Amino acid sequence: MQRILINGIGAILLLTTASFINPLPGLLYSWTINRAVAQSPEKQQTLKLFLAAEKQVLIKDEQGKQKITWQALNNKAIVKPGDILRYTLTGENTSDRPLKNLNLNQPIAKGMVYILKSANFPSDVKVSYSIDGGRSFVVNPTIKVTLPNGNIQTQPAPASAYTHIRFYSPVIAANTTLKVTYQTQVR
Fold first, then answer.
1. Counting C-beta atoms within 10 Å of the first and last residue's C-beta, which end of the chain has fewer, N or C?
2. Residue 167, by phi and psi: left (phi above 0), alpha (psi -120 to 50) or beta?
3. Does the reported pTM lie above 0.85?
């Protein structure tokens, strides 16, 4: 009986150890990054990220035409339904070597709706979107809709379904900056 108990405990310990050796995909990615840093701490890749938000303000010029300007949001900013906000995400590579395969993920804040086609980014950057809370990203999100006749049709996802935006850069050169923007509207 005691031998079975010891074998059972041994099996549990083996399974527990195996789960740490072969972690979940998200944990594996994090572990791989940490391992690379530990192997060459003097050449650690450094990326400084900055996020700024501005509110769209419409003013009239001398000819009476409407002009769009952007007002920086501070800690006491007040926004109301219908207001448009522009987010600027800046990634600064402060290291002496290029950073490769960089994904910058940004959630669309609750109470906000992404403005379709508002992302502005350099030509070598690719943008994709999530409609499932950031679990998966695609260039053109779609949903399945049941039509009145019972048929199911795939349609482009509405802007209100977007939950995240991802900017992918294959490389950011040493000592350079990557700047991307996107807009949302207050619900």
1. N
2. beta
3. no
Q: Same structural domain for residues 60 and 108?
A: yes
Domain that residue 29 falls in: 1-42
Distance CA 17, CA 2 (A): 22
Say yes or no: 182 and 104 in one domain. Answer: yes
Based on C-alpha coordinates, what's the Rg of the chain?
Answer: 24
What total of structural domains would you count in the chain?
Answer: 2
Concatenating the DSSP letter of every residue in the chain gives -HHHHHHHHHHHHHHHHHHHHS--HHHHHHHHHHHHHHH-GGG---EEEEEEEEEEEEEE-TTS-EEEEEEE--TT----TT-EEEEEEEEEE-SSS-EEEEEEEEEPPTTEEE-TT--B--TT-EEEEESSTTS--BSS-EEEEE-TTS-EEEEEPPGGG--EEEEEEEEE-TT-EEEEEEEEEE-
Work out the pLDDT band at 14, boundaries 50, 70, 90: very low
pLDDT in tens, 70-122: 999 988 888 999 999 999 999 999 999 999 999 999 999 999 999 999 999 99
Residues 57 and 9 grouped into a single domain? no
Q: 35, 47 in Cβ contact below 8 A?
A: no
